[in-house]
Amino acid sequence: MEEKLKRLKEILAEFYDLYAVGMLLDWDQQVNMPPGGVEGRGYQSATIASLAHKTFTAAEVGRLLDDLLPYADSLDPDADDACLIHVARREYEKKTRVPAQFVAEFSQITANAMQTWQEAREENNFAKFQPHLERIVDLRRQYAEFFAPYKHVYDPLLDDFEPGLKTSDVQEIFSGLRLEQVALLKEIASRPQIDDSFIFLEYDEQKQWDFGVEVITRFGYDWKRGRQDRSAHPFTTNFGANDVRITTRVHKDNLASAAFSSMHEAGHAMYEQGVDPALARTVLCSGASLALHESQSRLWENLVGRSLPFWERFYPRLQQQFPVQLGRIDLWTFYKGINKVEPSLVRVESDEATYNLHIMLRLELEIALMEGTLLVKDLPESWNARMQEYLGVTPPNDAKGVLQDIHWSGGMIGYFSTYALGNLVSVQLWEKILQDIPDVEVQIRAGEFAALLGWLREKLHRHGAKYEPQVLVQRITGSKIDPAPYLRYLRRKYRAIYGL
Amino acid sequence: MEEKLKRLKEILAEFYDLYAVGMLLDWDQQVNMPPGGVEGRGYQSATIASLAHKTFTAAEVGRLLDDLLPYADSLDPDADDACLIHVARREYEKKTRVPAQFVAEFSQITANAMQTWQEAREENNFAKFQPHLERIVDLRRQYAEFFAPYKHVYDPLLDDFEPGLKTSDVQEIFSGLRLEQVALLKEIASRPQIDDSFIFLEYDEQKQWDFGVEVITRFGYDWKRGRQDRSAHPFTTNFGANDVRITTRVHKDNLASAAFSSMHEAGHAMYEQGVDPALARTVLCSGASLALHESQSRLWENLVGRSLPFWERFYPRLQQQFPVQLGRIDLWTFYKGINKVEPSLVRVESDEATYNLHIMLRLELEIALMEGTLLVKDLPESWNARMQEYLGVTPPNDAKGVLQDIHWSGGMIGYFSTYALGNLVSVQLWEKILQDIPDVEVQIRAGEFAALLGWLREKLHRHGAKYEPQVLVQRITGSKIDPAPYLRYLRRKYRAIYGL
Fold it and tell me: What is the CATH number of the domain that holds A416?
């Protein structure tokens, strides 16, 4: 058995190397690559992806996993090796069910679709994108069929992003949430609106960058195992736990953009930096799921970064950097400004009170598309109707509506709910943190984050992908993913800000 | 045959992708990677190198090449496919003669040796490095044996860097050169020395960077297919002809460093950017040899960049950027300063009149080591004796002598002569250019380089690695690699500068 386990680990390590190389190719493309490199990079990425797939799905891996399964079952279920064998087996079964030809076709079709989506959005022309999306919905249904029988056609899609989670789970989690959030939004809308115009003055870009660096350094982002660059869309990528890179964007006329992007990505990055070194070069060396990842980015961006204690510490620094713009803005005015609630058309610009509504709208439409109860051609109409119902706004055109996100063009139907789930988990964790570190807000006010990061490391980060997300949330908080803490948090926060 | 050729190209394209990925891993390590990434990057690079080796040396490749050889011989020998099959066959035979185990052992031993060399140099302790170098010399002899029978034990080593070139060729080329260069150096030493102290004042780093960018942009370096970064040691790397990246270094107290580094690396880069797109993703998609590569970097750095016509155009710009430092330095003084000849201990700091002597010294020692007529333990003594004989200086210690270069610790015995050969070829090309573009100096004085770059593209760059270096030099200049033009150039140049 030891021989076999050693051999399995060798193959998985080679797979991990190829996966990491693929991530580097992508990071380089977004951060450094000159435009001329596009075609060559496409070939390089495809070659690496194909070799990675071949490595993982080799018949030898299947045999090793079959042989090792009884051994894994004989171990402590929390043992690294037990988790490794179980997770690898799960992945192996998923990967081998999908024919390589399907993967290649899907990748080609989405590459075209993403190109067309970009044009369609620029031209505000949904009809141009429609046939591509129809094809993608079709292929996603075919994809689900590889995993038949299933309880819901959306289950296999969701499972790729949230292992073990079912469509019915998500629907149940979200069922109460939507009505409550819509009601809260109406209450807020009845109050006088906040003035946040000071955020949109002109702010020196280098100073913005430096402030973000100062903050995430205090958080505990480890620069010896990471770096920050600029890119059009902020993201985090990593090649093991010891090289975890983030990007941010800096807008001259939006003070909130760079700082909160850096905090958000540092949240993702500290998760990866915290994975137990013993899991290096295995399939367990990553966060547990997209929702848990988002719980970390949102915790640092919102629970910490948009909190009053945080700005009690950091606002004087910021005022010092920008005396002309902020000298006359007091802390409370600033705090209210960065927490202003305003139903907007665009998901990525939305605030904590409206974000989940954008997500739920998308999830419902995705499920309906997959079930066949909604046709792609009717999507814009459904989109706009729901926008009006949930957020009270109607997009003036499809570019600001149904065409705003890249996800569907890239074939990522099944992804969106993880954003909202991450918000919910972030507050479940926060309630637990408040119990375990009662003075956490005092520490934040003092610019001390070591106990907080230590708690997250111990409870969550170090486990990597050993456990399914629901199992992990239950282990840490005592309950599965639950919307109640998030609702409590929103009510408490906006009561103070909007005087509800 | 078409089927077989297509299949061969598919495999070679996959090999090229892996090769390109390996280059990116290395570029990223030198330019971007945080220190924590070292261990993981080592694994990633080893995995990619091993897959690349497996891909190229697969038995299928051997069979395809055997089958395709008669077909290649039936084609026009200048046809891309004919060259591709011949070059791939050559590479296949070389790669398959060396056992994978030997490659792995060699790579491990040189990794250790490089580490020890660095320490030995810092501690000025040759004895510490000696056993490592002995082992490397031993392994290089074993390596040569894989290619027995050979005419000279150094031949197989040289062939890896200069395909087709023999030790006796290099010895013949260098035989007259050394005496002539030593004699010239003595003449120069008898003349009053030039004052170049103005080069070593304080110069703003950003302005230095910008000036280098301005120059290489004029040269024709294509930024849409490249970029420039900073690194400890300037280098060029590429992933196809459409993503060719350079690095440079900027020293606050040395005006010559950044500008000439950028010109040098842009020379390498423009060679790669000029390879015929039809050769993309094949073994022909690169420069023909290290010497020909160096001919390009040296041509732009020295023949253009250290010429009077060039500075007639660019010196006023430079003075404008640095009025305090250069305002009172006239063009002729500046020109003489950047062309000062001074025998130095260190190869990388040496000038056009002394550089080749550093190289010849190393080549002679390498050949003697490989022949066994010189023992590693006697290397420092031989080094110092030759330094005195050729350059009239004796290193005060081994750190500034035999331990100065990284090459031997990395196992690269066989590499050095390419630097000097590049110098020779650069002037052979230049003499031809002066015939074909009689007003090239007028164009340079006008800041126009399009005709020059166009000539190099047409005669050299586009061919990639289709021809062996001697064949290519003969095709372009009418003779094989020849030291006479270089000697003529040196005499003419220094006659004016030193009033010989």
Answer: 1.10.1370.30
Longest dimension (CA), chain B: 70
Closest CB from B20, B32, B242 relative to A36 = B242
Nearest to B36 among A32, A33, A224 (CB): A224
What phi and psi, each to the nearest 5 degrees, are found at residue A238?
Answer: -155, 155
Residues A438-462 have pLDDT tens digits of 999 999 999 999 999 999 999 999 9
User: B44 contacts in A (CB within 8 Å)?
Assistant: 17, 20-21, 24, 239
In A, which residues are within 8 Å of B28 by CB distance? 24, 28
CB B42 within 8 A of CB A12: no
Give contacts of B240 with chain A, Cβ < 8 Å: 37, 40
How many residues comprise chain A? Answer: 500
Q: Which of A153, A180, A198 is the last residue of a domain?
A: A153
CATH code of B43's domain = 1.20.58
What positions of A carry a catalytic annotation? Answer: 265
With CA atoms as reference, the chain B residue closest to A11 would be: B47
**CB-based burial of residue A2 (10 Å sphere; 0-12 exposed, 13-18 middle, 19+ buried)?**
exposed
CB A207 within 8 Å of CB A252? no
Contact B226 A48 (CB under 8 A): no
pLDDT grade, residue A384 (50/70/90)?
A: very high
**What is the C-alpha to C-alpha distance for residues A303 and A237, in angstroms, rounded to an integer?**
23
Report the residue from B25, B37, B226 with minimal CB separation from A242.
B37
Domain extent for A415? 154-500
Which residues pair with residue B251 across a beta bridge?
Answer: B254
- Mutual angle of helices B484-498 and B417-436, in 10-degree steps: 80
Distance from CA of B40 to the nearest CA of A (A): 7
With 0-12 CB in 10 A as exposed, 13-18 as middle and 19+ as buried, what is B381? exposed
The whole-number average pLDDT for the span B139-150 is: 97
- Six-digit token string for B444: 């340079």
Residue B84 in domain: yes
Q: Quickly count: other Cβ atoms within 10 Å of residue A317's Cβ.
A: 14
Please indicate whether, in this complex, the C-beta atoms of B224 and A36 are within 8 angstroms of each other: yes
DSSP H helical ranges for A147-191: 155-161, 167-189
Mark out chain A residues that contact chain B at CB-CB < 8 A. 13-14, 17-18, 20-21, 24-25, 28, 32-37, 39-41, 43-44, 47-48, 51, 222-227, 239-240, 242-243, 245, 280-281
A73-116 tens-digit pLDDT: 999 999 999 999 999 999 999 999 999 889 888 988 998 899 89
ipTM value of the model? 0.93
Q: Are B126 and B166 in contact (CB under 8 A)?
A: no
Sheet holding A236-238, edge to edge: A228-230, A244-248, A236-238
pLDDT on residue B458:
98
Rounded to whole angstroms, how far apart are CA atoms B415 and B240? 23
pLDDT number for residue A108: 87
Domain count, chain A: 2
